[in-house]
Amino acid sequence: MLDRIVTSLHASRGLAHKRDIASVLPHLLPPGVNHDTQVGSVLVGDDCAALPDRDGWLLFAIEGFLNEFVQADPFFAGYCGVMVNVSDIFAMGGRPLAVVDALWSRDHQHARPILDGLRTAAHIYGTPIVGGHSNTRNDREQLSVAVLGRASRLMTSFGARPGDVLVIAVDLRGRYREPFSNWDASTGAEASRLRADLDLLPGLAEDGLCAAAKDISQAGVIGTTMMLLECSGAGGFIDVNAVPRPADVDAERWLISTFPSYGFVLAVAEPSVKAVCDRFHARGIACAAAGRCDNSGIMRLREGLRERIVWDFRQQPLTGCGPQLPERAQTAHA
User: Fold this and answer.
1) pTM higher than 0.85 for the full model?
2) Residue 90 is part of which domain span?
3) What is the domain count for the chain?
4) Which partner for 88 in 47, 159, 197, 324 could form a disulfide, CB atoms 3.0-4.6 Å apart?
């Protein structure tokens, strides 16, 4: 299975989208900034920009959605506009304050289901839509959504340390929104439960149980872990059999391309692993120690006694974010 997973991962669309970051970043950094992961006080490469604000941090992020996804499932695309943005905020130990959207459509009729999805998710996640941009005279439907939040104590993509345990937490109480690999454990669930489930994340940060996390994106469990390790200048491994997944779901699809509505990769110091897992388990969320960080600069997969290298960050960037590693001059990104 390892050979098939590694081959499919390198050919996957989700990972290709993450690799695009490395080519974009140099054009966005201020003149003279090179091989750096910080612009002013902002770490470049995190789920959100974290801006110092009094005794905490303002968190700011944005998501854009593939046109084919918006066209095929417009309500859920609008719903995801809020859901994935608030997930970014919670992944960094924050709580969302508000969102704004930018929506283009052919006419009001085609905009309506997207707007219904946005409104529904805003209500469920308790995060109001406070403004945005709309155009109902476009040649197709297009959507992007931005979010503002606040944190008193951060979890970041730069906080994983050698020896930390890689913990995977996913809500398995869902289903795929075929034909896409979005695992929907949100629509139809009770709003109060969804909010309380997400509030576990800032609780972990504020109680000092975790300093490094990312929400699982369209790059799947493996790709998201790779981004976390790269930003932290670390290496590590994932045991593919230890990752929580539904019993009837193909392991390759789950690990490589599944984008769960609630899913996080956390790097946790060994003494805190049980406490972290217990908090997720108490809310019915699958959670397991599935790997470990080290200082190798290499991401590996394990299955039993077998091991395969997935990526060598010393030789090739993924997103280009993170510190310089030996054997390669590395460029940063967002």
Assistant:
1) yes
2) 42-151
3) 2
4) 47
